Amino acid sequence: MTATTETTTTAPEALHAPVIDWFDGCARDLPWRRPEAGAWGVMVSEFMLQQTPVNRVLPVYEQWMTRWPRPANLADEAPGEAVRAWGRLGYPRRALRLHAAAVAIQERHNGDVPRRHAQLLALPGIGEYTAAAVASFAYGQRHPVLDTNVRRVYARAISGTEFPPGATTAAERRIARELLPDDDDTAARWAAASMELGALVCTSRNPSCHACPIAQQCAWRQAGSPAYEGPPRRGQTYAGTDRQVRGRLLAVLREADGPVPQAALDQVWDEPVQRARALDGLVSDGLVEPLADGVYRLPGA
DNA sequence: TAGACGTGGGG
DNA sequence: TCCCCAAGTCT
């Protein structure tokens, strides 16, 4: 058989050097990439960066690392303090999980962020991506790091499509595995570089192909940059959803010094059934703690 | 395995 | 204005 598969069209080695060289010259100077960040700094940044843009994470990251420079410091706090300090980053369950992860690190790993992928994966709030990212960025290990940026880079450069599938597929994992450099240090470098390429150059909309170090080898460009034909990528409506109500409710709790009476929460949304459902949801998620007499507060705060 | 889960900036 | 999207995880 002489059939050419999509992954053998271009030798992996032909991609590594250009992308890593580009990264060496163009990488952003982000605080969690500096040596002093340590594994804990990398882990905190990864939690915050799950679905939240870098620019919004920056100031909150600095506050967190100043206040809680080690996992033990966060573990000693009430979970509600983590939720409060999370500010407006969104998806506040991440704050709760990061706090829980700090507690687990204290209990199971003597206060040090574990090195092994399986141990990282076992921590709350850490999935396939974050485990690989921490192991790779903090400890220089060799793991396929498949985030939304890398998936888009591979979709274009390797598969020749404008966008990756809705959910990560086995085919994508295979590509990531086959592209992974053999050497640990190069693999870690490649992971960071390919992510950065997706974040800065191979962006979702209006990619800067003129500035791309592998534009000449890009399967999507070679195919004439065909428009995306797959199923419509899910748009997330927000206005009027429980999520919006939850956000407003939690904002009130976050900004209050202490417990808040029901009446104050009632003002954020006029529809009582949805309002009650949202509040119940927050309570069952552990983001809000009901006290006696219809008073609420952030958990343990 | 879809769907839930916040928030705000840019085109 | 409206729509899309941003270093995912969990159920």
Overview of this protein structure:
By secondary structure, this protein is mainly α. The protein folds into 3 domains: 31-137, Hypothetical protein, domain 2 (Endonuclease III, domain 1, Orthogonal Bundle), CATH 1.10.340; 144-222, Helix-hairpin-Helix base-excision DNA repair enzymes (C-terminal) (Endonuclease Iii, domain 2, Orthogonal Bundle); 242-293, no CATH class. Helices cover 53% and strands 3% of the residues. The chain has a 3-stranded antiparallel sheet with strand order 1-3-2. Strand 2 (289-291) and strand 3 (295-297) form a beta hairpin. The protein binds a DNA duplex (11 and 11 nucleotides) through helix 2, helix 3, helix 6, helix 8 and helix 9.
Summary keywords:
301 residues; mainly alpha; Endonuclease III, domain 1; Endonuclease Iii, domain 2; three-stranded antiparallel β-sheet; DNA-binding
What is this structure's SSE topology?
Layout (H helix, E strand, L loop, with lengths): L12 H14 L11 H12 L4 H14 L3 H5 L3 H8 L6 H16 L8 H5 L6 H10 L10 H12 L10 H10 L4 H17 L18 H4 L19 H14 L4 E2 H5 L5 H13 L4 E3 L3 E3 L4
Antiparallel strand pairs: 1-3, 2-3
This protein binds a DNA duplex (11 and 11 nucleotides) through helix 2, helix 3, helix 6, helix 8 and helix 9.
